[in-house]
Amino acid sequence: MVDEKNMLKEEKAAENKKKGDEESLSFAELYEQSIKTFQDGSVVDGTVVSVRDRDVLVDIGYKSEGALSKDEFSNPENITVGTKISVLLESSENDEGMIVISKKKADRIQFWDNIINNFSEGSLIEGKIFKKVKGGFMVDIGMEAFLPASLVDLRPTRNLDQFIGLSTSFKIVKINHKRKNIVLSRKDFLETKLEEDRTKLLDQITEGCILKGKVKNITDFGAFIDLGGVDGLLHI
Predict the structure, then answer these.
(1) Fewer CB atoms near the end CB (10 Å): N or C, the chain?
(2) Residue 11 has pLDDT above 80, yes or no
(3) What is the pTM of this model?
């Protein structure tokens, strides 16, 4: 009778162990399946869970959190816990066991897709000149784009620093799909605008009307007046 009870206990224990192993295996399989949805190189949504002095921690629903430098944000002072952001998962684990993520690279990928879908060479786009580099400037249009110094104004100028911080419209003159970069021209935009202003002025101007202008050049026989797209000669 005692042996029979012991056998029943052993069978029960074996069943419980088997059931526990199956549950553990199922949990492990589910966990493994859940993390397989995250692939290195993919853009994923995350939530800021901590704001520190130099960086923020972001939870993307993976096995660990990732740290982002505040330099990756255009307005780091506005970052708060709970902020939703998109990041690029660069690596599922670094030497410290944390995921490696980048907001700037995610922004670039998403904005590049927006460029391809909504813009083409010749399109106008808004941007801000924020840095001078060799041969020209870098412009923030949601991603970095290059503006050659020769295309920053209607006429060549030596004082390039005056354009830093300028927010204006630019014409897209080249989209390199392979390298994923964009070349802009402010000169082309200004020429187009000048021609539009010229056409509008010529449609409105009549003999005897009074116009305001700016003296742009003085010669022996008169002064040239910029009327806003059209030059007029004022005889002396």
Answers:
(1) N
(2) no
(3) 0.63
